[in-house]
Amino acid sequence: MSETRIRNMEEFAAASGVSRPTVSKYFNDPDSVRPKTRARIEDALERYDYRPNIFAMNQNRKLTKNVGIVVPYLADPFFAEIARTLEQACIAAGYTPVLYSAHGEPDLENDILDSLRSLKPAGVLLAPLGRLSDRAAIEKFCGDVPTVLFDSSIRDLGLAFVGSDNPQFSRLMVDYLCRSGEPPCFFEMKTPANPNANRRRQGYIAAMEALGHAPHIVQVPGEGWAFEEIGLREGLAALDAGRFDTDTVLCSNDRLAIGFLTACYERGLKVGRGSDCHIRVAGHDDHPFSRYTCPPLTTVAQDYDSISRHAVETLFRALEGQETPHEVTLFEGKLVMRDSA
Amino acid sequence: MSETRIRNMEEFAAASGVSRPTVSKYFNDPDSVRPKTRARIEDALERYDYRPNIFAMNQNRKLTKNVGIVVPYLADPFFAEIARTLEQACIAAGYTPVLYSAHGEPDLENDILDSLRSLKPAGVLLAPLGRLSDRAAIEKFCGDVPTVLFDSSIRDLGLAFVGSDNPQFSRLMVDYLCRSGEPPCFFEMKTPANPNANRRRQGYIAAMEALGHAPHIVQVPGEGWAFEEIGLREGLAALDAGRFDTDTVLCSNDRLAIGFLTACYERGLKVGRGSDCHIRVAGHDDHPFSRYTCPPLTTVAQDYDSISRHAVETLFRALEGQETPHEVTLFEGKLVMRDSA
DNA sequence: ATAAAAAGTTTTCGCGCGTAAACTTTTGAA
DNA sequence: TTCAAAAGTTTACGCGCGAAAACTTTTTAT
């Protein structure tokens, strides 16, 4: 396709018959040059496969076209899905997404923020670890870099927060469970990493009391992000200790529920809402695998799409100069009825 | 902590009492300077929080300290886990990992290779999409950038390939299934994205014939990476059509098996090796969730750790100048006996 | 103590581009 | 045709660092 190899913007400008600064202008915003000029550049772009050196580009720019995406735990398909949506939205908007996972480790989260800073990103989409996050570090980072928080909020840090209306999730599920059977107890980790868990518990308590039932919370030990393992191990322990005083168990999240379903299986408890079933189990999130548990898990679906779309839009609106006060956007969940409850 | 803000290496060198080129040398290899000098630099490093500008650093270097990690589908926890291990190994070796996922899309895979090229990475760890990969593009890329392929191989491209001995996986499982019950049939997608599927099928056929059994393959339609969905939908169809002539089903991979387990559940088939069970189901990979299916899935475990460790080691050995011929390393799988078969 | 080797310094150059200012050309409408 | 605005060009400078060469100092070995 090419005659001679283009080594830099100077040579490319010569080849396209346009001056170098104009070419530079084109790459920063194709609409900023005359259509005729643009055509000449794009013509040359097809003859030669020149691409500007990104390091030289970013060196003299205070802000790059990079957007950092940080999630707490990428091995959780929920975050993998969100990351995918966010990446696509960034690319569509002409930005370059860079993906990071804290892998559940606070130290790594701090390291990521550090190296992100030196990337001079235009903005960052950050889902913090939650309870274990270094609040001071994140606050400082948000002061330096335009950051939109999502999934789990930390006070009112960042430009905005986009997440789910967690109390509504629990209310929805409690209402359904109560009108279709016994009132549920709430199964959760004692010290959950994610602050959403607290809001779900509170939502559960409020919903139960509104219906005139006494809330019953089964808290189990467990640290980290291996929720399925905790759900299984501590689910077994709780079952054996007779800690459930109802046949309906609402789990704090789907991954915990997946582990708990396995615990039920190992104890020979048939899960479901049929008359021959021993126990009903429900979760929160609509985790990608919840459709494929046995039985398929009844849960409350997070609005993945809306959350990621709105997070990206909020960030880009802020980047384009529109100063807005810290805004919190919470999306409602939808009941997903399957066979487990 | 700091007195005055350090703006560049020049100022930092002045503050630490060492010349700028020496500081530069230090950052490229801390061991290349005298211990005394190193101490002075690291002393200053604690007083001021200076960090070299990565864009300026990489501009004049033909090779950076970046290492690209490319996986085909990050929403699959298997790849998320591998990515985590690879990232950690890169960091430990003093490199900067950059993670990409093709999200199952060949176009995106090519885009990633393109933008990776402009990152001037020291090396790349690439798990290609497989059948849908653009072979020509990958071949060209491997010619430009030191690349170690893993998980799914493409001819003898790249510096090396690191993966699993897939025929051995199937042999192991077939042997076990045959000596503990009926010989298995093989359940797979007709046009699998991943070439490992073909090797597993071949391993299955060879193992069956070695034991004097007639192989029986159940191929179902389905494209893309939504394996669970395909396993469920096509599993239901195959069950209803009576396509299984044995009570033992060996699935091409665990995600397919997870979907198939759900199909069995929906048809009221009890899965397991007990006398009251109707069907046995097994998989390949030891997917992170396989422990938590109901019943827990019997499978052959990929040696995640060895694969990722060896891939990284191979790459770094090559980067340090040791020219080696294209080498293929395959790790054996281990039988993981659970309750499903 | 003395020479040789190792490490550090100084000097100089250049990477590929962004950016600003002053100037020139093109464009489009009156 | 005329002219002002828009777009492009020229010129000039600098970003923050890598790298090579020649020189100077420190360390190591004899």
TrEMBL record, chains A, B:
Keywords: DNA-binding, Transcription, Transcription regulation. InterPro entries: Cro/C1-type_HTH (IPR001387), HTH_LacI (IPR000843), LacI/GalR-like_sensor (IPR046335), Lambda_DNA-bd_dom_sf (IPR010982), Peripla_BP_I (IPR028082). Residues 7-61 form the HTH lacI-type domain. It comes from the Bacteria. The keyword Transcription regulation applies. One of its GO terms (molecular function) is DNA-binding transcription factor activity. CDD domains: HTH_LacI, PBP1_LacI_sugar_binding-like. This is HTH-type LacI family transcriptional regulator. It comes from Roseivivax marinus.
